[in-house]
């Protein structure tokens, strides 16, 4: 009885995860990455990496062994996250690398990049490095980038506003190691 119930719960959770799966088109992905403020310089490398690693599927999961798994759009390895609670080198849950929200994935991927470079991703090395990269310059958002929220005018800089600005700039530094 109890195990049937557990099985039902697992089934529901699996279905929920399945529903959260999102597969971007190349231009949608370009848009999202520009919105999160990836530097344009290496954007086609990131798009290539994501296409090769996950087919632009936010819930891609590759299980090599029970201790060696790769999660999400960027196929980030299990040493960078922890299942069930925050942890690993990115201090996040591995589950959060499988949902549609790719902001946290991106922060983590940039951390991987800072520490290991693109060569961390073997498929980038094999299929992107020195190869022709996806042509994202045709994407509408490459030509007309989505608006970036600017900081509020000086007189609106309340305590909360200041906090947000600080958070903002820390994030943009993290996401722009290349600028
Ligand atoms: C995305 O990945 C999930 C998990 O691996 C898989 O179940 C789903 O079929 C994939 N979606 C597409 C469209 O490939
Ligand atoms: C994006 O990066 C640019 C250049 O580093 C910065 O001026 C801008 O504030 C950043 N925007 C966001 C939303 O982080």
UniProtKB/TrEMBL annotation:
<keyword id="KW-0326">Glycosidase</keyword>
<dbReference type="GO" id="GO:0042742">
    <property type="term" value="P:defense response to bacterium"/>
</dbReference>
<keyword id="KW-0732">Signal</keyword>
<keyword id="KW-0081">Bacteriolytic enzyme</keyword>
<dbReference type="InterPro" id="IPR001916">
    <property type="entry name" value="Glyco_hydro_22"/>
</dbReference>
<dbReference type="InterPro" id="IPR023346">
    <property type="entry name" value="Lysozyme-like_dom_sf"/>
</dbReference>
<dbReference type="GO" id="GO:0031640">
    <property type="term" value="P:killing of cells of another organism"/>
</dbReference>
<keyword id="KW-0929">Antimicrobial</keyword>
<dbReference type="GO" id="GO:0003796">
    <property type="term" value="F:lysozyme activity"/>
</dbReference>
<feature type="domain" description="Glycosyl hydrolases family 22 (GH22)">
    <location>
        <begin position="90"/>
        <end position="108"/>
    </location>
</feature>
<feature type="region of interest" description="Disordered">
    <location>
        <begin position="144"/>
        <end position="163"/>
    </location>
</feature>
<dbReference type="Pfam" id="PF00062">
    <property type="entry name" value="Lys"/>
</dbReference>
<keyword id="KW-0378">Hydrolase</keyword>
<keyword id="KW-1015">Disulfide bond</keyword>
<feature type="signal peptide">
    <location>
        <begin position="1"/>
        <end position="21"/>
    </location>
</feature>
<protein>
    <recommendedName>
        <fullName>Lysozyme</fullName>
        <ecNumber>3.2.1.17</ecNumber>
    </recommendedName>
</protein>
<dbReference type="InterPro" id="IPR019799">
    <property type="entry name" value="Glyco_hydro_22_CS"/>
</dbReference>
<comment type="similarity">
    <text>Belongs to the glycosyl hydrolase 22 family.</text>
</comment>
